[in-house]
Design brief:
By secondary structure, this protein is α/β, with parallel strands linked by helices. The protein has one domain. Helices cover 35% and strands 25% of the residues. It is built from six helices and eleven strands. The strands form two sheets. It has a nine-stranded mixed sheet with strand order 3-4-1-2-5-6-7-8-11, sandwiched between helices. Strand 7 and strand 8 form a beta hairpin. Helix 1 crosses helix 5. The longest helix is centred in the first third of the chain and has 23 residues. It is globular, with a radius of gyration of 19 Å. The N and C termini lie far apart (53 Å). The mean pLDDT is 86.
Length: 261
């Protein structure tokens, strides 16, 4: 049995989830779909800002670019490190992928169309620069190619069986979406979650290969919210040991190539 504090911590996260769901229901007062979506996204932003280290920048709405000039589609929520340059203007922002820790797609209803849209949206996040001298990284097995954490959060959704069938189509070898751009966490509030590890794990006595999804239905809200916070904190810590240089895009802004690393 967990000690009393940890039991209270589960209750705490369940209470946070109830607030997210309850205040999301209150967002229905907005007749405009865009207004309702914005209210729900803001609730999740507030949750992250209230629980992540202060070294994380949590932004509502924007895009992600890399130093080759490739860019994502519109992303609902972006979390970046405090070492990443910021480009914030009039409630919209964009961030360089090298400093991005997490991206979140938020849905009111995660049906088959919604999951396809969310996966395609997250898959548009560009890759990190590949010419970086990664031998300078001073942490073991940073798995930087799997960064950032990719989350889909929904207020409601179809059955887990329907969702799994839709996911399997995206996870098929014939699909063009790279493994490192599929979602890591799919959280349907109060119902279930699909989560994957970037390394091989053992779950309930079963060996789960890296990047395969595990379905969870017990204490789903507390487990998912705590997992997202913990994983982003770990990426935030690891990012401190990656000596990124964000200068390449400055050269390319004016049509010149940066000097060799």
């Amino acid at each position: 049995m967990p000690k009393p504090f940890f039991s209270r911590l589960v209750e705490y996260y369940n209470a946070v989830a109830a607030v997210l769901r309850g205040e999301s229901d209150a967002a229905n007062i907005f007749g405009n779909t865009i207004d309702k979506g914005g209210a729900r996204e803001q609730l999740y932003v507030d949750f992250l800002r209230n629980h992540l280290p202060s070294t994380c920048n949590v932004k509502l709405g924007g895009l992600v670019f890399n130093q080759a000039g490739e860019e994502s589609k519109q992303i609902d929520v972006i979390v970046s490190s405090d070492m990443c340059p910021q480009f914030n203007m009039r409630q919209k922002s964009f961030s360089c992928i090298d400093g991005v820790l997490a991206v979140v797609s938020i849905k009111s209803m995660l049906n088959s169309h919604g999951i396809r849209d969310a996966i395609t949206n997250i898959a548009s996040v560009p890759q990190h620069r590949i010419d970086y001298p990664w031998d300078k990284v001073v942490i073991d097995n940073p798995m930087i190619d799997m960064w950032p954490l990719k989350v889909i959060y929904a207020i409601d959704g179809v059955s887990v069986e329907t969702l799994q069938k839709t996911i399997s189509k995206f996870n098929h070898p014939t699909q063009t979406i790279p493994k490192n751009r599929l979602p890591d966490v799919i959280h349907v509030a109060g119902k279930y979650s699909l989560r994957r590890s970037w390394v091989d794990i053992v779950h309930e006595g079963r060996a789960i290969p890296a990047c395969h999804y595990v379905t969870m239905t017990a204490e789903v809200d507390a487990a998912c919210l705590a997992f997202v916070v913990e994983r982003i904190q770990q990426l935030c810590l690891a990012s401190r040991f990656v000596p990124y240089n964000f200068g390449d895009y400055v050269y390319r802004m004016f049509g010149t190539e940066p000097p060799a690393v």
